[in-house]
Predict the structure.
Amino acid sequence: MEVLYEDNHVIIVNKSVGEIVQGDKTGDMPLSEMLKLWLKEKYSKPGNVFCGVVHRIDRPVSGCVAFAKTSKALARMNEMLRNGEIHKTYVALVEGIPSQTSGMLENMLVSDGRLNKTFVARPGQQGAKRAVLEYEVIRTGERYSLLKIRLLTGRKHQIRAQLSAMGHPIKGDLKYGARRSNPDGGICLHAVKIEFVHPVSKQPVSVEAPAPFSI
């Protein structure tokens, strides 16, 4: 358990590839439950431990994930998330070299729950939601480019779907068009930074987790 930040109300951890943030149909123990056990042991708590999920990142993705240690913090952070007041920055290693060194991607996305996949919607397609991100090319190699990505909306599989639609799928992301998988089964997408105003103290919080990949 790599804890990046902790106080009385908030805890931020560096999620590893393959871990799930919240329980799902696989039945695997989620990070939220691991954290409860960790907190219970660390502070020798006799009763139940509160650990609320503020946001999620996909199983094959690594990086910063915030949890709330109190119900007050959870309610406030959920509202902050809805209002776009929690800012998340990612880095991604993508196939190919984008034609522009920076830009904004805006698409209408629709998710298919049966396939657990998100697609760029057809014009007028029902259920489509607007998705926006900014990207910047940090470095390029012969076959891959390292991008910094700032999410402006929070849609399911947004970065993966939008970069794939751009023609530059994330390395290892077979679901969205990558040529081959990564040895660890993950994809080269990492939540490198999370920033917000603390829900209780109102002080700025900025936490980073170095990316486990580069060019």
Remarks:
- Residues 104 and 147 are 12 Å apart (CA to CA).
- The chain has three helices and eleven strands.
- The first helix runs from residue 31 to 42.
- The mean pLDDT is 96.
